[in-house]
Amino acid sequence: MGRPWLLLSVTSAAALLGGQLAFVGSATAVPDLVADRPSAAPAYPADSLRALGARTGLKIGTAVNMDQLGSNEKYTQITAEQFSSVTAENVMKWAEVEAVRGTYTWEKADQMVAFAKKNKQLVRGHTLLWHNQLPAWLSSDGYTTTLSNDEVKAVLKKHVFAQLRHFKGDVWQWDVVNEAFDDNGQPRETIWYKAWGGTGYIADVFRWAHQADPKALLFYNDYNLEFTGPKSNAVYELVKSLKAQRVPIHGVGFQGHLSTQYGYPDLQSNLERFAALGQKVALTEVDVRTFTQADAVNTPVNPLASYAQESYWSRSLKACLAVRACISFTPWGFGDSYSWVPGWFDDPQEGAALIYDEQLNPKSQYYVLQQDLALAAGAPRR
Ligand code: XIL
């Protein structure tokens, strides 16, 4: 895959040089393309997103579907070759790890962590506290529970310590708190909010997480932070106030679920203002959906839609590249067949949101990212 000039792999470079592998790694014989690479050739192509991202130190991630990893050969190979960071799309969520109260099931999450180690990838932990995908014994909707406020507090503390300790040392960034504000910038009145009588739970959870795994980077993660507005402003004020209270928060995750039906957000200025608070920032769940056909959910209604999608992908990656504090760029999966979008945004139908098609072939959106990374030599190293 790739543009012909990007296809120069270590082996083909050696072939060009008369088949003498000894020349590979010599700065004069093989310029630029392999200059950053260690002498032992890694198991991924020089034109992969991960290899190209490494030139600026930017990790390129993906959400991982554990029903495919290991069993679907093509899916597994792409995950290993293209990405330098992985996020569990579902298997680290509370409903998955503690479906039965007091009984932890870490198997699938452990398998993903083992895969990441084997393939020299970093792990984004997703997510410790959210109002969705909670176990039934705790809450069916995130807003109501049969437990008392004191019990809610106790189970949350237990959960944070159990999960952080289980993965201690294995997780690079944790999404500690996910989606605590609504689009009007009001705190969601979840079971956590109710138990604490306000947003005080956020500071407590970050403090517990830091105690349990002092080396992990701790993130607040949300959608629509890309756009300046009441929600982004509310999270900005939250981070400022957490910093003032010396709460250990290290980063803000911009989910980046974009749609061509809305204008492109002022993402870079939002990344910059959070970075100016001393935070790392990251694009954590990027997808760019468009209107699609009801009976072919990944076929755009407008045949020119992919141009708008390419533009959104490119601009969001370049916004991250331009901001030194932006340490990872993570699409929310990579194959349109496995995307959450068609099932979630279906009235009207949207889809075609990822960079590989339903057959796991790279789309034009993939090549745009590849080219942007290849041309990013002037971006600040991180
Ligand atoms: C989604 C998953 O992709 C789906 O498989 C699941 O059914 C629902 O959750 N914001 C988040 C992610 O933080 O955890 C969500 O993932 C997408 C929105």
From TrEMBL:
A GO molecular-function descriptor: endo-1,4-beta-xylanase activity
Database matches in InterPro entries: GH, GH10, GH10_dom
Signal sequence extent: 1-29
Catalysed reactions, as listed in the record: Endohydrolysis of (1->4)-beta-D-xylosidic linkages in xylans
EC class name: hydrolase
Source organism, top-level taxon: Bacteria
PROSITE patterns per record: GH10_2
GO biological process, alphabetically ordered: xylan catabolic process
Enzyme Commission number, as recorded: 3.2.1.8
Residue stretches making up the GH10 domain: 34-372
Record key words, sorted: Carbohydrate metabolism, Glycosidase, Hydrolase, Polysaccharide degradation, Signal, Xylan degradation
Keyword flag Hydrolase: yes
Record-stated family: Belongs to the glycosyl hydrolase 10 (cellulase F) family.
Name of this chain's protein: Beta-xylanase
